[in-house]
Amino acid sequence: MSSATTPPDSDPSQRRRVHSMLKHYYGLNEEGKVTEQAESLDPCDINGPHFDPEVYLNKLRMECSLGELMDHESCMVKQIRSLDSDMQTLVYENYNKFISATDTIRKMKNDFKKMEDEMDCLSANMAAITEFSAHISGTLQDQHAQITKLSGVHTLLRKLQFLFELPARLNKCLELQAYAQAVSAHRRARCVLQQYSHMPSFRGIQDDCHVIMEQLAQQLRQKFRDGGSSAKDLSECVELLLQLDEPAEELCDKFLSHAQSRFEADLQGLEAELKDSPVTDTGGGLVQKTNPGSNPVSPSSSSTTNPFLSPTAGTDILEFIDRGCNEFVSSLCLVIASYQELFINRPQEGELASKNIPEMANGKLHVFVDTLAARYFSLVERRIQEEKGVSDNSLLVRALDRFHRRLQAISKLLPGSAVPSQGTEIVVRAARERIKQYLSALQTFYHDSLTDVRQALAAPRQSAGGASVSGGGATSKDATPSLPELLTSLSNFILNQLKSVLASVHLFTAKDITFSNKPYFKGEFCSQGVREGLVVSFIKFICQSSRQYCESAGDRGGSTPPALLLLLSRLCLDYETSTISYILTLTDEQFLVQHHTPVTPVTALCAEAREAAQKLLNHYVKVQGLIISQMLRKSVETRDWVNTIEPRNVRAVMKRVVEDTTSIDVQVGLLYEEGVRKAHSSDSSKRTFSVYSSSRQQIRYAPSYTPSAPMDTNLLSNIHKLFSERIDIFSPVEFNKVSVLTGIIKISLKTFLECVRLRTFGRYGLQQIQVDCHYLQMYLWRFVSDENLVHFLLDEIVGSAAHRCLDPSPMEQSVIEVICERG
Amino acid sequence: MISSSRQRFWASVELSIISNFRYQARALTAQTAETDAIRFLVGTQSLKFDNQIHIIDFDDENNVINKSVLLHDAGEIWHISGSPADKAVLTTCYSKTSESRVLTCAAVWRMPPEWESGSHESPDDSSNNPQTLELLCHLDNTAHGSVACVLWEPMGDGKRVISLAENHMLLWDLQESSTKATISSSATLEGKGQLKFTAGKWSPHHNNTQLATANDTAIRGWDLRSMSQIYCIENAHGQLVRDLDFNPNKQYYLASCGDDCKVKFWDVRHINEPVKCLEEHSHWVWSVRYNHSHDQLLLTGSSDSRVILSNMVSISSEPFGHLVDDDELSDNEESQQEDKGKEPLQDSIIATYEEHEDSVYAVEWSAADPWLFASLSYDGRLVINRVPRALKYRILL
In terms of one coarse class, where is the protein primarily found (chain A) (predicted)? Predict the structure, then answer.
């Protein structure tokens, strides 16, 4: 039936819609008026409440065509049909429900009647039970009172028996060493005995007990004194004694002195380690385990003394601190804890409270801990001081960390104690000391690397064999190519070393280290310690030691190889331009340096480095100049210039001078930039010396050779000088190749000039000088910034030689050129 | 006493007085025995022309130089030195060329008495009619080689001279008014290689019994009584030692200069380290001279064409300035003295004189006026300068 009424295309949602529409029609809508109001008052709405069939029909008739009306009609019919069937279904459903409800109500009526009967029966039974119980309790009343009395007597008798048995029991306890039991028993009896002491029998018991307890206390004290017992036993002992009204002060003292003896043993153990470590130290120091893995340094060559290897002591510092912590600090903590348990934190009972024990005990404890800690600290400090090697900083830091961490326990146990802060001070001192050690290690490393460099510089020269001793300027060609490599490797070594040291030092401020958040490690350690004490000091040291090379080697100039001077100069210059700021930035970043105190500014360091670089380079020029000067001087001084033969060749020494200058040029060129030259005259830039010399030199030299009146030469040279600037011979040079070479050549030629002026020349002597000078002119101009300088000095030399000549007849310019070109 | 006119002059500009010779010259000396006139002697160097000795008289009042010329035809002059006793007597070291061999000889000369009376001719006239030096005697040394310098006994009677020739040191006695010279004693420097004295100085202390010489880089002290070496400063300078001078007031103090551009001060009792070291010149230092009376004033000449006057108070005999006798101090002066004590003079360069254009080989203080000095450069330029007035008053007052 239902299937017939429901439209075939119906689905749950549609049915619900239909339901709701029906509900609505019957006014079952809970929403009531709200919906009604919301619904349109349109009389044409077929679903609305104000539907007017007439109006609707009229409207349809007016609006729709016939076809539409037909459709509408059929649709309407369909809808009416479906509504009808829906209504039928609902009526059936409701009818069924109504019938089942009626059935249920009827059944319930029957059940209730049965239940009522049963309830009546139950209440009658309960009344009977109440009556019985009242009867029974009435009969038992008397007997209950009697039993209560008897049990009271029994208890009293038991107590009395306990009292009478007490001495015996105490004795037994004493025999069995069950002191705790004895004391507790005695304590229980004590008040009673006290109260009834006027009765002779109780008095006897009390006296007996007293004697026994005296004995017991004696034994306890004995045990206390023996000191063989463990801390726990001991504390038990103390507790008992306290309960026996022993004076607390005495007990404190005894307790502490007992503990003292044990700490004594610990400290002696530690000290013993300290004492024998120097012995093993010297033994191990010679052996020197090489441990490149943990070693932050890998020196270029095996240097015999390596500061980065720790002396292999008997125990390393971590073990030592561990031992100290485990034995000393932990037992100290234990003692403090048990002491506090015993004397300070006890629940205050009765008369003990009045004696103010905690304060007294606390005072004693502080004194005790302070003295012990002071001794412990002195030991630790001695051990730390032994830690000279800087191989493994992490070990030290870990040890310090542990040391510091364990002391925190004391601070927790004993608030207000100076011990932890003293411990922190030790850590701070150790850190400071460490920084100093690192600095000195860096310095040693720097020296060692320089020694390596020096050896590297010297080695090829020795292998070259032929290089003469005097000709230091000729750093043979085998050595020169490695100069930039040496520089980079040296500066890398230093930088890496510095970085690894910084990394090691950085451990002090690592987050997981307990003392890293102390104000010292946050502020002063970073700025004053690491930045100033380590990095800045090291840079200053480099500059300083570089300067020392200039000063110590001042005389004779032989001790420092010139190449090293050049290298160091470049190193300092590099530092000035980049490395210093890099290092400092690195440090500042790593350590988050906050500058509370004024620190050395980068610029000051840079200036210092630049000054050192300048000084080194000046010294290099001086040394190289002197080497060449020496050759020239010897060559002038040892020759008999009056009786020399007609020149056929350029003297070998001049070739040597040019060779040396060339090799210096190469050497300097490896490290320094070319530099600025003054514009070449057109002829020299073409490098056709012959053109140059033939055209200009003749004009220049010719007047000074002619043996005319001295007036002319003077006038000429004076006029010449008037227009040329004063030449400073040993003057500071700039940081470029040309300037350096100019400096060296100036020094050499000036020496040549002065030496020539001290000699007297024959005709051929003069001619030889002419040839030599021309040769120098041919080759030296290209090295200098201003070729006029070379021309001027060479002119002076030839002019002076002409003055000092007995028979001044100069050589033909063309002949000079031929000779020079030939050789 | 300083006359008012001079004070006026010093109040004006500090002038340098420049005089040019037409010859190259290295030898310069003050006329030691002349204490009234400011007079210098310059010996010229020329291989082609007759060499001369120029007598430079400086008229302090008028700032005028008067030159006289004496002919020295023996050869070019390398060193010249005046007798401390007789202002007319002098010695020269000159080079002589014979048979294509150059030998430096030494001789004692007397200036002809007329040179002074012959008025101060202008330089042009003097070249026409120069008078010749009168040879007293040769310090005959052919056996010993070239003479580097001749030293008179300081403040002596002009009877004793020392000549340094190659590696020999010869002490001469001049007899019969210097016309005859005999070697009274001699010493020879022995050692490896060819040793050669380059400079020397006769110490004015210890009764004139000590001499200091320089050879190569070493400075040696000699006792003239035994002619033996008493000390030797090896490697006193990095290179050749060019000149020496004794502190006139402190008997153990010695200044030296050399090719390492340095001037060093020595206490000969402690020869390991110099007392002080100056490095102001930019080339070889050829000459060093203490002021004769105020030994803090030091003059150096160098081939960088500069003359430097330094004030070395800290190692002078008056390290705290001029000491005034207590009696003479009134209260007022005392307070002034205290004021001055607060700012003691520091070692410093007083002045650098750059009038020269060629190497300066000789500097010399005037014998007559302690505030005046001359310097001579190779191109024949002689410059006379004064100690700056301000400094002079600071030293004096």
Answer: Golgi
CA B278 to chain centre: 19
> pLDDT tens digit string along A511-533?
777 777 777 777 777 777 777 78
What is the 3-state composition of chain A as percent helix, strand, coil, each rounded to the nearest 5?
A: 75, 0, 25
Letter for the amino acid at A374? A
- Residue reference for tokens 């006014």: A27
- The beta-carbon contacts of A362-365 under 8 Å, at least 24 apart in sequence, are A364/A249, A364/A252, A364/A253, A364/A256, A365/A252, A365/A256, A365/A336, A365/A339, A365/A340, A365/A414
pLDDT in tens, A270-294: 777 776 544 333 333 333 333 333 3
Query: Are B95 and A555 within 8 A, CB to CB?
Result: no
Mode of pairing for the β-strands spanning B253-258 and B218-223:
unpaired
- What does residue B245 show for φ and ψ, rounded to 5 degrees? -155, 145
Using alpha carbons, list the distances in angstroms from residue B27 to A758, B80, B360.
Answer: 13, 6, 11
pTM: 0.67
Within 10 angstroms of residue A447's Cβ, the number of other Cβ atoms is 13
SS3 category, B384: strand
Tell me how far the alpha carbon of residue B118 is from its chain's centroid: 28
Residue B366 vs residues B30, B36, B110: alpha-carbon distances, Å: 6, 10, 20
Residues of B in contact with A642 (CB under 8 A): 97, 100-102
Token pair, residue A709, equals: 């009146």
> Which of A726, A795, A797 is the mutation pick for testing B, counting most B CBs within 10 A?
A726
- Distance in angstroms between the alpha carbons of the first and the last residue of chain B: 13
User: What's the Cα-to-Cα distance from B16 to each of A26, B319, B370, B373, B396, rounded to whole Å?
Assistant: 140, 29, 16, 10, 22
User: What is residue A788's three-state secondary structure?
Assistant: helix
The minimal CB distance from A757 to the residues B97, B305, B378 is found for: B378
Contacts of A238 (CB under 8 A, 6+ apart): A224, A251, A255, A342
Q: What are phi and psi of B295, to 5 degrees?
A: -75, 0
Would you place residue A715 in the very low, low, confident or very high pLDDT band (cuts 50, 70, 90)? low
Q: Which residue of A has its CA nearest to B25?
A: A757
Do A364 and A340 contact (CB within 8 A), yes or no?
no
Check if A707 contacts B (Cβ < 8 Å): yes
d(CA B45, CA B48): 9
Distance in angstroms (rounded) separating the CA atoms of residues A288 and B186? 64
Cβ(A632)–Cβ(A574) below 8 Å: no
Instruction: Outline where B58-206 has alpha helix (H).
Output: 114-117, 123-128
